[in-house]
Amino acid sequence: MSRLRRLSLWRAGAPVALLCAGLLFATSATNARGTDLRPSRNTTLAGLVEEQSRRSAALTRQHAALSGDIEKLQAQQGSMEPKLAKQLKDLSVAVGTTPVTGPGLTVTLKDAPPEVVRDNPDVDADWLVIHQQDIQAVVNALWEGGADAISIQNHRVISTTGIKCVGNSVVLHGVPYLPPYKITAIGDRRKLQQALDDSQYIENLQDYVVKFQLGYEVKNETAIAMPAYEGTLDLQSATVPGFERTPSVSPSTSGR
Questions:
Q1: How far does the signal peptide extend, from start to end residue (predicted)?
Q2: Which sequence spans correspond to the domains of the chain?
Q3: What pLDDT does residue 66 have?
C-alpha cells in the first residue's frame, strides 16, 4: 500500500517538476536573447587599457573627421586673405595641429623585466617601473635640445599635454597607456642627444637602468612622419591674463 502511494505521488509530482523546469529554461532563453548569460570578460589591466585606448582612438578619429568637415565648409564660405592664411599655417605648426616630418630621435622607456622583479622582492616596487617623471624628464630634455615637435606613443605633444601616473599605467590626453613608452622628437639629432646626455635626472635614471635593467634606448631616426594633434584645444584649468575665466567641458588632461 505504501509503495502504491509513493508511486501515485511521483506520477502527480513529475509533471509539476517538468513544468517548472520548462519555465526556468524559457526564462533563461528570454533573458539571454540568444547570448551567453555569463560572457567572458577581459578583466586584466592590459586588456582594459587596450580596450580604452582603442575606444579613445576611434573617438579621436571621429573628432578629426568632423573637424575636417567643418574646415571644408568654412573654406566654401569664401577664400581667406593670403597673409592671414600664412599666419594661420605658421601658428598651426607651432600649436601642433599640422603634421610634420624630419629627422630626429626616439627614446624608449620600459619597466624592469619580470625576472628582475621576481628576484628582488625586497626592493621598492616604485624603483622597478617607469613613472611620469621619467617621461617628463625625457620630454623636457628634448625641448631643451631644440626639438621642433614631440610625440608620445605616436600622439602629438602640445602646450596643454599632461602626463600622469594612474596605477601601473601612464595617462596621456585622458587615455591610459602601458609600457614600453616611446617618445619621439624631430630636430637636430646631435643637439637632441646632447640635451639627453646633459640631463641630471636622466643621468640618475641611468643608475636604475644599470642596477635593475629598466629600459632606456635612444634610436636615431632619419625620417619621422609625426601626426598632427587631433584632440580638443580647449583649456580646462589654465587662463589667459586679462580674460574672464569660463568653465570648459573639455575631457582633455589639464596642462602642466
A1: 1-32
A2: 1-38, 45-226
A3: 60
For the chain, report the end-to-end CA distance as a whole number of angstroms: 89
SS3 (DSSP) at 204: helix
Is beta strand 155-156 parallel, antiparallel or unpaired with respect to 215-226? Answer: unpaired
Strands of 169-172's sheet in order across: 163-166, 169-172, 175-177
Closest CA to 155 of 211, 228, 90: 228
Query: Would you report the helix, strand and coil content of the chain in percent, each value rounded to 5?
Result: 50, 20, 35
- Cα separation, 254 vs 256, whole angstroms: 7
Query: HSE-up of 166 (CA within 13 Å, CB side)?
Result: 15
For residue range 200-246, list pLDDT tens digits in order: 999 999 999 999 999 999 999 999 999 998 877 766 666 777 766 65
What is d(CA 246, CA 239) in angstroms, rounded to the nearest whole number? 9
Q: Which residue has the cell 585622458?
A: 174
CATH of domain 45-226: 3.30.70.1880
Query: Which cell goes with 55?
Result: 575606444
